[in-house]
Records
---
Amino acid sequence: MGTSVTISAAGERDAEQILKLQYLCFQSEAERYGDYGIAPLTETQEEFRAQLARTTVLVARLGEEIVGAVRASLDEDGTVSVGRLIVHPRLQRHGLGGRLLAGVEQRLAEAGARRYRLVTGGRSEGNQRLYRRYGYTPAGTERDRDVVLLTMVKDAAEPAGV
């Protein structure tokens, strides 16, 4: 399944499709935490388009359909913040999340990344397993409203994929 999917940079024309997929994908997280006001569900097209202009956004396409996406930004000290990794529910567990994660790591390694950082739900065990498989380790927790978030980090010297 994963071989027929292509990974490429997102463009302005992809914004609406990415946000619709994001809304679908984060329903399970909202349900898990009993909070449908989480940022991925309330982000507007204007907010996303502004972020698209200053971050790296990769998409996974199956034909013309966007079936996955990830965002990342590189700061001055070489830290990449990875976020909003999503894969359409019907295509989960086929390696697309890992391909997107490895793809964004590779792109930003070429731009000078020294470390990667991401935040995931403290109860999102499947997400945590994926990130651990790609070399991320827990680095701390924080609270956002009533949700415990786990920060995970990875040194850029580690391989981008498994």
---
Amino acid sequence: MQEATSTAAVDTAPRPTATPDLHLNSHTSDGGAGVEVRKLVVYRETVLTEAGSAPAVPAERASAAAVIRNPWVGTPAATDLGPAVSAIAPSLARILTDALLHALGGVDAVEAFGKAAVVGTAGEIEHGAALIHTPYFGNLVRAHLGGESIICFADTRGDAGETLVVPLWHKNHAATRSHYQTVAVRVADAPRADEIVVVAAASTGPRPHARIGDRTTDPAVTPALLEDQP
């Protein structure tokens, strides 16, 4: 399954900034099967100064990480991952984006986003990919956060406490360099061998003092041009 960019079928109304509804652990809002979350870890940082001065807009970054049991541990490599993905991923998208919106102040505050997964050592990298790279997660995260861009990502397999650096970029204009940034995510006791940590991350603005220009201001640079310079 491929993550699509269309979000026409998804409710994109502004989401409340109240504390996330963790009752979604056991069921979805329409009564269907959901996902059991062992732990939800939310991290937020505010950059107040950089290089001795305050940025024009103090940016806040946040990540939300859900620790879940890996439903495919011990299954053959040919196992169809689709049924479990459609049952689990939409609830994860809702839980994680609710947490981000609560941390950062709502849909309008979010300017950049990213996603990630860390698979425990008994699982496959493909298990994490199944949960973050399909429309059941990616389309819904994008819609819930009010974005249009494809979501940048990271994934790996590791032991409990594995640190993963999650890249972010602008939620509507992926080529906007000022919003290229990262959030480091770590859950001390996860993933266990039979677990997956699924992450959504976001920022309210660009890097502090962003000033490297953009494609609209770039000079034409080619290997031949550089070779001609003294």
